[in-house]
Design goal:
Length: 481
């Protein structure tokens, strides 16, 4: 028992350690051990000493860690590189990732979002019109399956361009599924194993990358007649600081990375949103009333500017991400001994650090009645308002530029569903435009309720890489038309 290391969670077996108790329900595991040991403790995850540091101080310690002390790519590359492809994201030095994030962010402009809203609206409306399961006036549907399809159609069309979207109707959908099979926590360990799903993953990665490279060559050859604000065009015309233009295979691999990022995070989040609306039908009515009050009873086609005028619609996403953040564990390798501020602990390089921002997002100290899904809590005068809203804490948050634009350090914030610091998400704005548009269109088309009319909510599946609802998750819909 080294007094300079955080307390170790009791475990019976070496290697397995606490892997199973953690893997079954990470938030419960964090809460139980935080009550026992405080904000910093160590457990064995698949043979690795994993030090958890929770709360705003823990989030700051890990997410704002210095490049010389903490390393993300060492942990994630085994999982992401076989799926995305080489030379991008975690298969390159961090400095190169920072430039790649700058290129990605250049495409995510207000002008681009202005063009995305009609695209996303159109895809949602045609999906609800065409899909056989929504034909009857009322019925029961498995919502995660539907949201996965709506997410991939909307994200591929807006973010990847119409050429990619059109391929999702035939080949790409099946290839995407095979690629996705390789995106599982099991591959933290078995990424190398010649398992059937790894061979399918590798074939799919090569095939999807070559489809993207064909599209790139075609667009270079024929010039860009149709003015689309998609990501591919921007990446194709980007150049690294050292003067090298971004090679076609890196453009293709970054497009796969963005597809995977957007797909899992948005389909999990939108599924949770729909399940919460079915559990709270009165909120769905309030959302429709908000649109009628703000946009007019004729409900004109949605524009990007309308989204900012619908605060309850925006709060739905904020509140859902507070309770159901898709990424429950953020991991870093320790490269140098790291003293933990305010304690006598020094974390040695053999450890892995694990940040769990969701712990402070469900801490009653910051969010009164934390387990209640209450979108109204984000309105200043609400009794459940979080301190960051009640004190009118203006965005005086410290900001810093790692090479892809100013990001909040998020050091004091108890609410970080998009991370913070050097590895912070660049997809937050796109995700919000996509999710707010999907919710606003869905509210216009349907009433939702739980199949048994109860106020129950299905459990969470933590076994995959992104936490998501257990499946099947059925709800009842009723067409408003
Ligand atoms: C609800 C939606 C989303 C959530 C909750 C989310 C969450 C996160 C989190 C927590 C991180 C930090 C990971 C870490 O520190 O290790 C992150 C990073 C990132 N996300 Fe997202 N994300 C979302 C959507 C997206 C979308 C739509 C895209 C792309 C269009 C995207 C692209 C990225 C990228 C490129 C990074 C940077 C990774 C790094 O720098 O290491 N995300 N995201
Ligand atoms: N027995 C057992 C047993 C043991 C343990 C467990 C569970 O253990 C764990 C532990 C850690 C984790 C971590 C999640 C994790 C990390 C990184 C990524 C990512 F890199 F992929 C991402 O950030 C994703 N992203 C970002 N924004 N949107 N998506 C990303 C970045 C850039 C990019 F371009 C594309 C990207 F998509 N994805 C997910 C999940 C589960 C289960 C069972």
């Amino acid at each position: 028992k080294n007094p300079n290391e955080p307390p170790m969670v009791f475990h019976w077996f070496p290697f397995i350690g606490s892997t199973v108790t953690y893997g079954m329900d990470p938030p419960r595991f964090f809460k139980e051990n935080r009550d026992k040991f405080g904000d910093t403790f160590t457990f064995i995850l698949l043979g690795k000493k994993t030090t958890v540091a929770v709360g705003p101080a823990g989030n700051d310690f890990i997410l704002n860690g210095k490049l010389k002390d903490v390393n993300a790519e060492e942990i994630y590359t085994v999982l992401t590189t076989p799926v995305f492809g080489k030379d991008v994201v975690y298969d390159c030095p961090n400095a190169k990732l920072m430039e790649q994030k700058k290129f990605m962010k250049i495409a995510l402009t207000t002008e681009a979002f202005r063009s995305y809203v009609p695209i996303i609206s159109g895809e949602v409306q045609s999906y609800f019109k065409k899909n056989a399961d929504f034909k009857p006036k009322t019925g029961v549907i498995d919502i995660p399956k539907k949201m996965a399809e709506i997410t991939i159609f909307t994200a591929s069309h807006a973010l990847q361009g119409s050429a990619v979207r059109s391929r999702f109707d035939e080949t790409l959908a099946a290839l995407y599924h095979d690629l996705d099979m390789g995106f599982t926590p099991i591959n933290f360990m078995l990424h190398w194993a010649p398992l059937p799903w790894n061979r399918k993953r590798d074939y799919a990665q090569r095939t999807v990358a070559s489809i993207y490279m064909d599209i790139i060559r075609d667009r270079r050859a024929n010039g860009d007649d149709h003015e689309e604000h998609d990501m591919m065009k921007h990446l194709m015309n980007s150049t690294y600081k050292n003067g090298t233009p971004v090679p076609d295979h890196e453009v293709a691999h970054m497009m796969i990375a963005l597809l995977m990022a957007g797909q899992h995070s948005s389909s999990s989040t939108s599924s949770w949103i729909m399940l919460r609306l079915a559990q709270n039908p009165e909120i769905m009515e309030e959302l429709l009333q908000e649109q009628i009050r703000v946009l007019g009873a004729d409900l004109p086609p949605l524009q990007y500017e309308d989204l900012a005028k619908l605060p309850l619609n925006q709060a739905i996403i904020k509140e859902t991400l507070r309770i159901h953040a898709p990424i429950h564990s953020i991991m870093r390798a320790v490269k140098q001994p790291m003293p933990v501020p305010g304690t006598k602990y020094v974390i040695p390089p053999s450890h892995v650090l694990l940040a769990a921002p969701g712990v402070s997002a469900s801490d009653p100290q910051y969010f009164p009645n934390p387990d209640a899904w209450d979108p109204h809590r984000w309105e200043a005068d609400s009794p459940n308002a979080p301190s960051i809203v009640r004190n009118g804490a203006v965005e005086e948050e410290e900001k810093i530029d790692y090479g892809y634009g100013l990001v909040s350090k998020g050091a004091g914030s108890p609410y970080l569903p998009f991370g913070a610091g050097r590895h912070r998400c660049i997809g937050e704005q796109f995700a919000n435009v996509q999710l707010q548009t999907i919710v606003a269109e869905t509210v216009r088309a349907f009433k939702f309720s739980n199949v048994d009319g109860s106020r129950n909510l299905i459990g969470t599946d933590y076994a995959s890489l992104f936490s998501r609802p257990l499946e099947p998750a059925k709800i009842r819909y009723e067409r408003r038309d």
